[in-house]
């Protein structure tokens, strides 16, 4: 993440100095900074005494909720702009984002256990994480899928007005190489984000629901899921914003 931030400093200065600071840009920088705090505290909490579990867990869940909702909000705003002339679709996407928000809030209902961790006696542990975390991660994955399909279908509607056989136009569209710069950025970058989201999100869900694994190993992929989706989502935003 540090490498990615250093590598994109020029673009981020351009976002600040050469463009108006609008709500999507504010959401972008919140999304950019929150994972550092979340991941740092996740590693720091490995050494926390059991008496600190309640505060530490609230802190981790709060920043997890901010991160997942800011990623989803960026893509909701992008999809909303594409469907600017379809109010029903905008409302539908807003309802889906509300479900993502509600799913992330469910994590607050997972209470830290008073039992010591079997893996590390000084570390905190939790109960009932499978159901709540699966719902939270699942709603985000469903949201990403719907937004990706909706944006792809909208771009295909625009692209199909070109001349030529339908099959040929479809193949050209799926390749994305001959699309206009803005559309190519939306489609191909969206493909990459959805691929990362699908692979890391589904892997995280599978690990979380395996009851035979110790809890520490069931949640071990969550920081990686947050890191990868954050980097790609921010990259997509910069590409679209800066053209």
From TrEMBL:
Transmembrane segments: 26-44, 56-77, 89-109, 129-151, 192-213, 219-237
Organism whose genome encodes this protein: Dendrothele bispora (strain CBS 962.96)
Alphabetic keyword roster: Membrane, Transmembrane, Transmembrane helix
Recorded coiled-coil stretches: none
Domain of life where this protein originates: Eukaryota
Protein name (Swiss-Prot/TrEMBL): G-protein coupled receptors family 1 profile domain-containing protein
